[in-house]
Fold these 2 entries.
Entry 1:
Amino acid sequence: MMLIVYIFLLYVIYLMPTFFYDRYVFIRIDVPSEVYGKLMFADINIADVFMLLVLFYMLARYRTVRVTNGLLITTLVSIFGFALLFLNGYDVFVYIDSFVYLARCIVFFVITSYIFSEKNNISYVVKHLLIISVIIALVSVMAHYYMGYVDVNRWGQVVEGRVNALGMGVNQAAEFFAMIFLIVFSSIVSEDKDSFIVKNNPRLFLATVMLLSIIMVLISGSRRVLVLLIAFVLLVYFLKHKGIRFRYVLLWTLLVFSVLYYVVDLGSVIWVLQRFSDNVTIDRITKFLINAEMGLDIYELDGRYDMYNSVVAVLKENSFGVGNSTWAIQDQIGKHGFGSHAHNIILQFYLMYGVFFIFLGYWPYMAIRKRSMHTFIKYPFVFFFVSQMFGYSLWNLKIMFFIILMCVLIESNDHSYEE
């Protein structure tokens, strides 16, 4: 019964369009007037109420609270961030977005810990996550190709042709589906104990998941995710299949691109990419390379350079960080440029938690170091943190819950699902 309720919760979270979080709420929390285009949805909505009901049900059944080292570390770091926010003069009862997010994350973490503590539950949860990804992908692809999809982001900017996947955000949608792809791909090519994904799912279904995931990355317009996904696919395959044939393929591939880039010219690479310029992601990569070839400002199409300059200016004024509120950080960055996040997880975490953010390195450290860690968790998790060097996606609830799910798996000592 608990597993059914939890899986239903996942469907509610992932299939509910994001605008529900903003329009259909039980308690409205006003955004400070100086914040332009809120990132965090702090309003209490139907998903929050449902999660609390599920938590109370599980507490009544187990009569214990599951607290792990990772949950304790993350909570303590967050509390320091709230203290930093207060010391910097912000009203913690107004800039309350991160407090609401922390409460949501703790509730979801505890619920997921209960679910994963029971035999075989992980296998069922992963299967339904794959099903959810297929549903989201099909809806998004049909919206993109049959309804002339045009996304308008929270700042009122038109992002034509870049799929938002039920409100995840274009880059966040790309990261989500890249991780889904890596879950399946790493399970297929590996020979370790996580083969339950292959055993418990038809091959046609897994192929469909991988194909739709690639399509979603391509129509998201996210350049960094596409490039990183290709790199991680090569990495996973190379680590799992160390045969000499693949090494030759890899070397020849690098040689061909080296010849195109250094011997011929950058225009040859651009010419190849332009054959696929109908795709929004490849088209954005092509424009980036054309700017580089023409000697123009390669940051003109991206904006991260100006954003990083704004973050540096904020750090000069707030050497110890701003505090645990994305709204407050948006306020500070907005004084020097465009009010958004830092577009880098290290910079963002420093602004939120000060030097104490280093303790959050516990999660990637455990994912990489833990010998019993399964491939289908390790590679998507590491992929996400590498991607976050060029962006920041944890403001998005759907991505946050997906990462929390993997964090619970990282700390889980129950491997009964291997059988």
Entry 2:
Amino acid sequence: MLTQSTILLVCAGVLLLVGPAQAFPMYFRDRHDASCTQHPTVGYGAHGAPIEGSANNSLSLRDPKGNAVTEYCGGETYTVEAEFGEESRSYLSSSYGTFAEAERNADSDCPNRVLDGPNDAPVASKNFTLSIPCDENKENITIRMTAASGATAPYLLTTSTIPRNSSCSSCPPPSSDPNTSPPPSSDPNNKSGNAADFPRVSLAVVAVVSCMALLAGL
């Protein structure tokens, strides 16, 4: 017969094991987010609340020739350079465009974001490839990054707003071929039909409920 103290010790051990899982950005997507550009606004698990504008983290943009730029032109592919003050895992999103690295997230409805998971080691810097469609009605794009150096570290949030270069060449006219299918919606916030819309039950919650049931049965 298990004693109350034994059950409490086992429960504490289980919570210690599942608690660090909150450190992976991919788990935030599966449990808490509601759109393709949503970032944490509170601390989850043992994380501290988000800190905006940390001097330790930075975002920069480079054009196809490798030149640092502060404006973008539609129809181009850019390199987004992310720098962290220390080795971290990260979550990056753009209000417009597609990240080449998004394919590994198995999140086809949100090609505008990249999230680290259990198989991604913490790093001090990382590059991403962002393709921006040509749309003369788009003025600014916003790139946001949330990073954390560990399971108990605060979220560090970095935001970069990049204006459209007014001297960019005009977008090519749309195809007049009547047999051409319209392109899929480029709205990064459209996640209809994605299983990730339904947050998974946290392992920590399951552990707590199980422990309470065991204690009630004593």
